[in-house]
Design brief:
The structure is a homotetramer of 341-residue chains. By secondary structure, chain A is an alpha/beta fold. Chain A has eleven helices and 15 strands.
């Protein structure tokens, strides 16, 4: 059996979740792990049979046995670590974004390093591998609804994030809506050429202090002529609201929210159903496994990855345009020229 | 029993449908009917016991026994007939719009006549009385979802209209989206202050010849700070798609499409359900009855009507703004000052 | 236009509902109506243009202009009136049962009179014309689920009936389950050959005083080898519960309960839907219209009726068997030989 | 952390599935595994770090480090191995049944050995831990539907089993319906006192050759006065059909089938949904984990198990009664006296 020899960088909550998923895949051999606070989880890792541990990711990158690295560190380290990993000749899995800098030069520098090294890079746009959205995507591709004309995405978080966390990971547009821009572009198989966005603090006015918003409504124009509508909220009291609808010349596809219950309670007042799954950990659990599976398959079979570096640049451009649209009150064009040619 | 003494003007397809509904209400007495082609349906009307028939609506308006007129004539006659009815001192039910002229002066002249006459005027914004949307509306008003923050409306026709019909009744924005503007404003209980719209001919490019569009996506700003998203299409192959969603600080309300079937067929391929109701006649059948019922109640009990003249002006202003937004590519402010003060 | 010249006997609550439905059908001319308390509704009837009224149904039956009678009188009069109507040579619509006497000789005497007269008789098994069940029925007939193997019927009333009403119309088996026996037989297109029933008073023990039950569970054997399961309850706090499921070699068809609302309320506790329609008047409203329509068509086109006299006899035999099964604790055979040959 | 020191006996397909689940639980230490064909999976086990392997379960049972055994061997070995495990003083998890012998003395002998040894025994009635059914169960217990009056269970396999497999694991009643008898009794919290069953070969007549059936419909009487209805089929072309409904004085609870898709495809013909999950491996995946979790918790916290030996005896008695009912055509009483007192 062909195997990936993997190094994992970053073992916070997300990293550990991904590690558990990777451990179930027989064609991945975890060679070494790195975390700046490795001592906190050292014993646990030993119990899992992962004894080659380091605090220094450079040490891991210089390990010749490793051909692939999974980067689960905080967002502000991506630029540095992905670049170093590329230069070390490793295939790379990394969460978006590639850089906290909204000017895309930073991201493009990273991608140039990846290109120069000739390694594979998959971006963690996990929703592309969510079974619900994947089903919609495949049916759209298979022509089940004819020519796509309108995509609608509703994406609502269950609750506000702490301000300091937002400052570390990016605000609504760059951390949250980013996924929706990517999903919209992915579903329509076409680039976004224009964004008009309305956004504000309808839930927590103090978000203005950190230049963030909690509610968003926007319209997209796609290169192929189609339109998109996205609405976001930071607090949906009923849980994590993640829906996609694609309308086309021959029909419509809808992915509704996911619940873990099919139970219906009929009483003298109404019929009660259970709420949707509460958070991304539950909703996108299968997606997190599937994106890893897809990445491993891409490497072992030398096939294109599910989400590449360009995809994160394109989503970032849309986010920048949305930001500027909110600030100026005017629609903003989005550059669709392919960089790094 | 208090009774309305009614005259009906216009007995085309819509008029006959409304007439049948009115016939079932014991507190309406049909005194006289008028239609320019009255001879075509004279016998049928006689069979229903309606023998006082005329080709000339002026004759009907001068009938002193009549206190209320229902106007079901073609859109281009509304301005003239509503004005004449007001001057004749009759209460008036009329479909939107009040004038084919997009400059609102024409509509305001009509409303001034209504105001001067001191009569009641109800606009046929039938969707306000659709049981599904009404349920959402009442739950929003009752605070079931806290403060409304986002309203989303999807409204799709089952198929394209003939070009000549469009030229008589108005294009997508003024005939179709008009209802959505009204619904958005009604649900949010707040005026629309800004519209940004993208629209085009994704289905039938020849619509450009008559300056119309078939596909629309837009974002609204409301006076109370909330946002709205509307998408329209002229051809949904699966039927008449009419959905509303209101999201608020304490929850969400969705009105899904209506089907007349609860039957599920499970076979070796999938589960099949019946499509939504095919057209407005089926979907809004209860709404057409309910709006008449509401109008009659308003008159008999001297209560406010469900949709008044101002409402059609406000919806028209949004349509004008959307038109200009599509033409200019820029968001457009909507005047919310109350005219006729 | 061919027209039926109709007489209506019995104008209590059910009769008036049916009358309103009949009034909307242009190919029915209401010639005369009869009710023992005709004076109570005489004015109302006049207002509807029905002026030929009588207290004596014999007078109506002797009216030569009438070719068809609709009998909506109380159950205990069916035997007498149907017989008289047949002898008068009128086509007959009548609710089940044909006789309060559980010994079927009484019913067969009625049917013999109908047969001798050569008139049409349609039994008011309205559920056969319910759009949901009709859809299932037609899909079964069209082979959509292959060979039917199991039918399941759940039928629950919203609340207990007064004891004196039960004594007039028959207990659970003969008034309520009767419909389910007919539906089971209709769906399977096969006679019931055996019944095993468990029944008791789980809701109202005082029903024992009038020899009735409120809860029932039973298993059926059909002539074609298939099985059936029926469960009944007199009190479902969530409304009128009417479901049918047919399982076959190539799939399954389910008709779920009908609600008049598609609105979903998502809050921090759960998702709330509206309850099913509360009572038979709402649930079977379209069925009541459709069965009349079908009867009129049968007469005008000389086609078989939707539910004939034999059907009520067969359902009655199943009810008698169920009764005996509950009393003896043993399964009971049901005679399927066709009477009156 | 308290840990269970576990031995696993039987590593066929089911055993390996359970092993994978157990491996994810940190409070279970797999000390040793046994399988008569251990050489076939030895390498795979080594790769999982399980190196203490044996062909002889007696060796495992005599391992003093082991306190708990999980028995996943074929049904015909349960009687022998459970008895031996009990005599060795181990806590035991075992799938139903405890004996292939339909006379319950065999099962009772096993349970006597368990009782004498004072060890815990949990029966693999996995559906008790299915999240859907568990939700219904807990809501029933919490009084959400008042007094339960009727339980309905539909349980259909996706396809026929090979005859030789049936002969090894038991026919429909003893292998398949057994779960439904247990579920019915569990939901109603009351013993089954009578069974009337109709069963036959509506799908595969050659099943008669091995004295089995493929279709079943039955009615249950419970000790508390309630009723039950169960229907089974061996071949549902649309997948694994597993539904439970409990009706009570204050409402109804339904657990519908589980699908892994929320995607709806609307086209010009109908609306398409994905079929239910295809087989028990998918549908009951969370239940298999949850029953292990519950068993481990019961041992570590010395609490009652979720399904005990008595439960399998009671379900077996119902199966015996159903068998006899089908053979005799008569309802059969079920003894509810507690054995082994």
């Amino acid at each position: 059996m062909k195997q990936i020899h993997a190094g994992i960088i970053g073992l916070g909550r997300a990293g550990q979740m991904h590690l558990n998923n990777l451990m179930t895949m027989p064609d991945i051999k975890i060679v070494q792990v790195a975390d700046v606070f490795i001592e906190n989880i050292s014993e646990k890792l030993n119990g899992m049979g992962i004894t080659n541990q380091t605090r220094d990711y450079h040490e891991l990158l210089s390990n010749p046995e490793i051909d692939t690295v999974f980067i689960f560190t905080s967002t502000d380290t991506h630029e540095e670590i992905v670049t170093a990993a590329a230069k070390a000749g490793k295939n790379i899995f990394c969460e978006k974004p590639l850089s906290m800098n909204q000017h895309e030069e930073a991201s493009l520098n990273v991608l140039q390093a990846v290109k120069d090294a000739g390694v594979k890079l998959q971006i963690g746009f996990n929703r592309r591998m969510d079974p619900q959205f994947r089903n919609v995507y495949e049916n759209v591709r298979n022509g089940k609804i004819g020519t796509p004309q309108v995509v609608k995405i509703t994406s609502r978080d269950p609750d506000l994030l702490p301000h300091d966390l937002i400052q570390r990971i990016g605000g609504l547009l760059f951390d949250f809506t980013m996924h929706d821009f990517d999903m919209a572009r992915y579903m329509m198989n076409s680039n976004i050429t224009e964004v008009y966005a309305k956004g504000g603090t309808l839930i927590d006015p103090t978000l203005k202090d950190i230049n963030d918003i909690d509610t968003l409504a926007l319209v997209l124009q796609f290169e192929n002529g189609a339109y998109g509508l996205i609405d976001n909220s930071r607090r949906a009291v009923y849980g994590y609201d993640q829906r996609v609808e694609v309308f086309g010349s021959e029909g419509m596809l809808k992915a509704e929210n996911v619940s873990d219950s099919t139970v219906e309670l009929y009483n003298d007042k109404h019929v009660e159903l259970k709420k949707p799954l509460p958070m991304f950990q539950e909703r996108y659990k299968p997606a997190y496994v599937a994106e890893m599976r897809a990445f491993v398959n891409s490497i072992l079979n030398d096939e294109p990855v599910v989400a590449e570096g360009l995809d994160v640049v394109m989503a970032q451009r849309a986010a920048v345009a949305a930001q500027k649209s909110i600030e100026t009150g005017l629609p903003q064009k989005v550059d669709t020229t392919y960089p790094l040619n």
